[in-house]
């Protein structure tokens, strides 16, 4: 089976599995490989153990074209291997390539024992600049020897958001493809052309350029978010002033744009914070300082304290708090570097009794947690302050049960239509 032409996706996690499902919509021989045997068993039974809109349905619809395995030796020899495994952040801000290097080592040992005409290795995971030239290529050359000449080594990072992964993969605005030889990009672009339904800008760069481009793009977005929060900070306390309206106005200029320009507090998640820190680490490696990236982090790190100051301003320490939104963004269960969880901890330290609610999470160890469904079911509304950390409209159903004396602190402004229903409504950007 492994000697056939096919596509290997190594890493069946939150990005790898949607890619498997989309590829299986157009190709027959798709193999998903993951060292987590429990995950593989679950996937073989068509069970996706996390929430991602549309994913389980897409897997089920194309299941006949997919195999799952925990063994790299099952990988197709001729074809393409896409690697989407974790690259954890280290204490200095750099990413660890441990898992990628392990995959490359095992895959190369598998390939070298076989006869293959052509094989493409496409690394999708975000990596530190210099990884391809200094680590990946030398490792593959050492194991493959002359057979390395029959290999294409490509970098193609994804620009997606959890909760919207499938659409982001189908309709990207840009594609960045990092190669040593520009001709190496053609086979990969042909492969993914069936999946992509938009007409993105395609940028074929060398390895180092593409590695920098990935983290630089996310770092720019974090800078934009922190800029919006800076405007909120500067204008804080000015009467009859809504920072979100100012930002909406300037976002109408095409040079700026509306996306990510809202003063709703800190950014979080598995990409933005670490990619911004990685840019600083990359700069340090060359003896330089990424001043904007550093300033962006500084602004971001003080946002939870800003929210707490607002709570202290309008409340008593005896007031109980309900915190809306535990995940770092809607439509996902991921809580990595979640701004609301950061606030939860500092509010606890300040002495507040606080509970947290989420629409997609069933349980959250270490927190006084309740799901949205359970909250509505039991109607435990014994709190004096509600803080909305989520842009999701799902929580607005709570307005049917809330006492009008509850103080609402709304970071995203999506409760503003219900302002008249409550005696104390505070839009975070409005004074």
Structural description of this entry:
The protein has helices at 16-24, 37-44, 55-61, 98-112, 131-144, 165-170, 185-193, 207-234, 243-251, 272-285, 291-301, 303-314, 339-349, 372-378, and strands at residues 5-10, 30-33, 66-69, 78-83, 119-123, 151-155, 174-179, 201-206, 320-324, 353-358, 369-371, 385-388, 407-410, 424-427. By secondary structure, it is an alpha/beta fold. It folds into three domains: 5-206, NAD(P)-binding Rossmann-like Domain (Rossmann fold); 216-301, N-(1-d-carboxylethyl)-l-norvaline Dehydrogenase, domain 2, CATH 1.10.1040; 303-427, Rossmann fold. Helix 8 crosses helix 10, helix 8 (207-234) crosses helix 11 (291-301) and helix 10 (272-285) runs antiparallel to helix 11 (291-301). The longest helix has 28 residues, at 207-234.
- CATH fold call of the largest domain: Rossmann fold
**Residue share in helices?**
25-40%
Number of strands: 14
The total number of structural domains is: 3
Major β-sheet, in short? Answer: 6 strands, parallel
Largest beta sheet: strand ordering: 3-2-1-4-5-6
- Mean pLDDT level: 94
DSSP helical segment count: 14
> Which structural class is indicated by helix and strand composition?
alpha/beta
Radius of gyration based on Cα positions: 24 Å
The CATH architecture of the largest domain is 3-Layer(aba) Sandwich
- The end-to-end span amounts to 66 Å
Strand content: 15-25%
Shape: globular
